[in-house]
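Design job #97: recover the sequence.
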């Protein structure tokens, strides 16, 4: 069961709306702020897709959906929230402005997660003058309501306790938190994606293949392997009985061959954009973005459902987590609403003083850790 009593979402784009959907479908009330006049419609469209996917995952019935409130200001959105997810565009100046306002008005014990795809938390938390120690990167993958991974990264001012609390918070809504050991731009997932994306652009630009042919090569081969084992375990198996050492001895020399253009970037001009976009339009074959989203979600649910039945019924990889998550949702669906409401009310964080003590550290359920019980190390995430 989630340990989040009330959440706030700042930004309602594709990622922000995905966070809203995951939270609401876990029965958590969410207050969202987004100045876009179309925000309500856009979030509503994402919610339709998310509800559809979750009904496939838990056909026996879903938990009572959380209440969604559209706030007029950031201050209104974050009031009384114990978990805040920021998902505004990737501009450092905008991140600074938004995070400063969140920090000014949010409860002192609230965890603040940023959905940034690549900005280091140290570079963002300088704008937070009151409680920079509670900021973490909480980088998800689209669609947020289905894909469970969230990369957690702490900055130089982030308390280790805040990282641990963030890990618990994300896990409580069915996610797979992975703490990135060192703070770097783009973290881990996007660094891998950027390498593949850059190589893919060269292959299409040079006329080696079309976007559809490249996608087919991925989805009919190593994409299937990665979905259930990842890169290193797949290569361990490829090494035969001798395992990874044999694989590296056999294929290590290939790294020196001129197989890649990863260190070069194709000129990102109108010609390249037109080439990629035109081929992408042809590949879509008339399917709208919403139709493609439905296909994507159906496929993801089917893959995770299939993986949940592997390993003698225990589940494998994302399937094991999916199995536990759907059971959790089913339990929440059968829990009497009144009892759930009473428990949430009892667990509501105590109100903080107007000027919280500097020694307070963010924890779950509004119970700050005192400074004499924990080291104030500036440990990087």
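Job complete. Output follows.
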């Amino acid at each position: 069961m989630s340990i989040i009593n009330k959440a706030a979402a700042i930004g309602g784009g594709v990622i922000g709306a995905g966070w809203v959907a995951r939270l609401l479908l876990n029965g958590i009330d969410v207050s969202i702020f987004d100045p876009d006049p179309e925000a309500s419609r856009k979030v509503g469209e994402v919610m339709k897709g998310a509800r559809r996917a979750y009904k496939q995952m838990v056909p026996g019935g879903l938990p009572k959906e959380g209440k969604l409130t559209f706030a007029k200001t950031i201050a209104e959105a974050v009031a009384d929230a114990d978990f805040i997810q920021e998902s505004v565009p990737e501009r450092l100046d905008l991140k600074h402005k938004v995070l400063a306002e969140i920090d000014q008005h949010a409860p002192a014990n609230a965890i603040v997660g940023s959905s940034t795809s690549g900005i280091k938390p140290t570079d963002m938390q300088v704008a937070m003058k009151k409680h920079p120690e509670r900021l973490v990167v909480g980088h998800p993958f689209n669609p947020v309501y289905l894909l469970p991974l969230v990369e957690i990264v702490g900055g130089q001012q982030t308390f280790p306790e805040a990282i641990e609390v963030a890990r618990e918070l994300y896990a409580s809504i069915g996610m797979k938190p992975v703490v990135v050991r060192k703070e770097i731009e783009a973290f881990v997932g996007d660094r891998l994606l950027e390498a593949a994306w850059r190589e893919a652009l060269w292959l299409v630009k040079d006329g080696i293949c079309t976007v559809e042919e490249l996608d087919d090569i991925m989805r009919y081969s190593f994409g299937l392997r990665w979905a259930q084992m990842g890169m290193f375990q797949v290569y361990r198996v490829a090494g035969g009985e001798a395992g990874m050492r044999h694989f590296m001895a056999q294929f290590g020399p290939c790294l020196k061959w001129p197989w890649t253009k990863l260190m070069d970037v194709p000129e990102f001009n109108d010609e390249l954009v037109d080439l990629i976009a035109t081929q992408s339009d042809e590949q879509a074959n008339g399917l709208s973005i919403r139709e493609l989203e439905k296909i994507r979600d159906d496929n993801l649910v089917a893959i995770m459902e299939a993986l949940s039945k592997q390993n003698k019924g225990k589940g494998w990889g994302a399937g094991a987590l999916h199995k536990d998550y759907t059971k959790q949702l089913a339990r929440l669906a059968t829990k009497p609403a009144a009892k759930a409401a009473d428990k949430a009310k009892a667990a509501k964080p105590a109100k903080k003083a107007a000027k919280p003590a500097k020694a307070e550290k963010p924890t779950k359920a509004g119970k700050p850790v005192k400074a004499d019980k924990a080291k104030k190390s500036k440990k990087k995430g």
